[in-house]
Amino acid sequence: MSASTLILLSYVLLAIFAVFFVLKSLKMARMPVHVRWELAPVPHEKGRGHYGGSYLEDAEWWTKPREKDHVAEATYMFKEILFLKALFEHKRSLWWFSFPFHFGMYLLIGAVVLLALGALGSVTGLVGTDMWLFATGYPLLAGVGYALGLLGAVGLFLTRMVEKGMANSTTYATYFNVLLLGSLFGTGLWASFSVSDFSGQTLGFIGALFTADMSVELAGILKAHFLLAFAFLAYLPFTQMMHFVAKYFTYHEIRWDDEPVEPGGKMEKEILELLGQSPTWAGPHVRADGKKTWVDIATDTGAQEAEK
Amino acid sequence: MSDKVRVKDIGKKELPMLSEVRPEELIPLPPPYDKVEDLPGFKEITDEKKERVVCNLDGVIASAMPHPESPEEEQKYVDMFVDGLKKLLSKENNWTFLQPLTLSLEYCIGCQTCADACHVFEATGGKEIYRPTYRSEVWRRLVNKYVKPGGKLIAPLKGADIDLNWTTITRLYELTYRCNLCRRCAQVCPVGVDNGLIAHELRKLFSQELGWAPTELHDKGTELQLEVGSSTGMNSVVVKDNIEFIDEDMTDETGIETETPFDKEDADVLLIHNAGEMLAWPENPGAFAIILNAAGIDWTLSSEEVGYDGVNYGLFYDDVQLARIAIKHSQAAQKLNAKRVVMGECGHQHKAMVTIADRVLVGDLAVKRESFLPLLEEIVFSGKIEFDPSKNDFPVTLHDPCNIVRNLGIVEPQRRILRYLCPQFREMTPHGVDNYCCGGGSGFAIMSGNNYEDWRNNVSGRVKFKQIIDAFQDQPGPEVKKYLCAPCSNCKGQIRDLLNYYGALDKSGITYGGLVELIVNAMVDVKEPFIKWEMF
After folding, report:
1. Are B119 and B498 in contact (CB under 8 A)?
2. Which of B213, B222, B172 is nearest to B64 (CA)?
3. Looking at beta carbons, which residues of chain A come within 8 Å of B373?
4. Which domain holds residue B404?
5. Fold entry, domain A91-236
6. In CA terms, which of A71, B54, B221, B294 is 20 to 30 Å from B316?
């Protein structure tokens, strides 16, 4: 594949990623308010989060000030995101592979940031690519990231195959996802060892993406690696691998959403609008006709029918 | 029968049963409960019965579904099921749970962390159909194949093919009643996926679209409550009579003049009991009356239809019924102009009314609502009542009702009371928000038809029973009387059945009851022991 084809393809794949990543994320964020479904422990409960307590432990809680511990909540998320705390505590056998898999990705995200900064610096002439950070720091970070990610991917693939429960629920698509990421890590690791000017060539390629320079030189393995990387990104929004975005909502907007309705507030208005919709459930006791609203249905206890 | 059950096997008509529960395969219990042969086995479902009702999942029947009369009728229900799948994922039909459900549909990574947290899965030594993700994965594949565009083409390519037929939907229906909805699995999920919620939403689909729900929850539950005022069948006249009898009994037993106020306007507290307490455990509403009167609380019960029964089984299977009952509770409080509604010792009532209904009872329907536990804590430590903790000097442990503790985060008030009033209080392991369900959660405690009670006692309640026995391991014999405090009506029902089934009063000296009974037992003014050790 020529460099120009790769660059044009990269633009397309990155555009797909950007558009659908935003759309998918917005879809999650714009769902209607739901009924309360909190689950202890809620870490922002000041002085009680550590044992799972909530403001509902206070008599006449509505008369008491509600104090939230945002530091405790942030600390909880930091440990969960960075170290996969829940998996460590509840499924250690999987953590040994899942942690390097995810931590490898975090290192690679860091490496990509360095790569983008180095390429931008080089294109604008503000910094040289021979700086230690770009010449040594970036490939070192990427190499460790690739190695950890590959170790994790191999371990997760095998675990899914042999562990009874996981094997039963793992579809071909999930195996494909792990293989795809494993290939991405594998080609990256191979390139970082086999391409003598790994740092210079990758910085040059990203710089070419910024400037649309179709004459850039790139080793074959790096072409394969970048193609896999951008293809993965374009594919990502359509998969369960978007769970890292979903997780924000499952934690903050479901498990930890213990916000009571304020009379006259924004949430109450939204709920009143939702209650004005007309459900079409067909169960005979629901007595929906496509016109009755939730309010009509919820206040219809069957007394009228009984009278008839 | 092999337990190598695959997700797609759920639709296989040629399998008479998908799996089977065998008592000898369940995790062992501690002595003297470790001999399987000493226990009554499962009631046998006769062939004649199987010819009349569907029994195709695990040999257990929660809801006796008659067989369809024709292939057309089968297809009608299958088509309705697909409609229901779509409605579950639509805003106008399911705004109440759309975001949690959609995220649980799309983003489970199949790590199986949830399985180790599930007491049903654990009790059976890991039976595949009870794995929390099994029913979720069935549902996920059905949605992906039958609801999403191009699903029928893509499903086989993804290795996620599944057949949808009468067998699939009837097995799935039964399977939704093999989960207590305790949400212990959701608590440990790294992604925040909620398999308990999925079981709940599937129950809703069957009820709200197909009109299928266990009789105990629907016909004899929410429908009866909305019709006569209580799922016990009691109307307001009967309730008032019963409370009057209870007051008289309490006066005789304690020597304290006991009177329960009804329909007092502008009271500080409208107390709503689970009406089942009045029939099964009358000492519980009696103890409440003694405590509230002794503390000088301005309180009342309501005789308004539904207002005297805090039960809301809609929480377990049907949003429409949930909302109808919650609105009735709110209207009862508004009619009396009560300053606050206090939930009695009933866990699901807490969850239905305090949190779930918070986003249903909006506008004119909003009333202040809270648990009885903080109020009791205030009373016990207020100095208004004199206590003698030595009167409770026997081993006491605490069961944490999931709906009060894990779901509402009310953990410490009950513990502070027990630490103060019960010198031999000890925790179960694990406890608090990490507790195990009693096995009767989400309506199971009132479901006993066919051989379902055997399943409850052997499977869903097994881990809890083991916990109870373990909590008293320092004094295991029956010569030392022990008290299991379970401040929840449904939990008490299940624990009563468990203790009876295993003969735990005779073998281990364990009885059970609520929290208010322990408080009254420790009152100096109550001369005779309030707790009876033969209360089964």
Report:
1. no
2. B213
3. 57
4. 386-521
5. Fumarate Reductase Cytochrome B subunit (1.20.950)
6. B54
In a mutagenesis test of the A interface, which of B82, B95, B121, B223 is the best target, namely the one with the most A β-carbons within 10 Å? B95
What one-letter code names the amino acid at B486? A
State the complex-level ipTM: 0.95
Contact across the interface for A39 and B363, Cβ inside 8 Å: no
Tokens of B419: 């630490």
Q: Which residue has the tokens 């609380």?
A: B297
Residues B441 and B299 in one domain: no
Measure the CA–CA gap between B184 and B403, rounded to whole angstroms. 11
Which position has the token pair 């029994």?
Answer: B55
The closest CB to that of A52, out of B99, B134, B411, belongs to: B411
Domain with CATH 1.20.950.20 in chain A: 91-236
Q: Give the largest Cα separation in chain B, rounded.
A: 75
Do B121 and B267 fall within a single domain?
no
Residue A219 in contact with residue A195, Cβ under 8 Å? Answer: yes
Q: How confident is the prediction along chain B (536 residues), in pLDDT tens digits per residue?
A: 446 899 999 999 999 999 999 888 999 999 999 988 888 888 889 999 999 999 999 999 998 899 999 999 999 999 999 999 999 999 999 999 999 999 999 999 999 999 999 999 999 999 999 999 999 999 999 999 999 999 999 888 887 889 999 999 999 999 999 999 999 999 999 999 999 999 999 999 999 999 999 999 999 999 999 999 999 999 999 999 999 999 999 999 999 999 999 999 999 999 999 999 999 999 999 999 999 999 999 999 999 999 999 999 999 999 999 999 999 999 999 999 999 999 999 999 999 999 999 999 998 899 999 999 999 999 999 999 999 999 999 999 999 999 999 999 999 999 999 999 999 999 999 999 999 999 999 999 999 989 999 999 999 999 999 999 999 999 999 999 999 999 999 999 999 999 999 999 999 999 999 999 999 999 999 999 999 887 55
Nearest Cβ partner for A52 among B190, B356, B432: B432
Helix (H, G, I), strand (E, B) or coil at B269: strand
How many degrees, rounded to 5, is the angle at CA A62 between CA A57 and CA A65?
A: 85
Residue B244 sits in the same domain as residue B349? yes
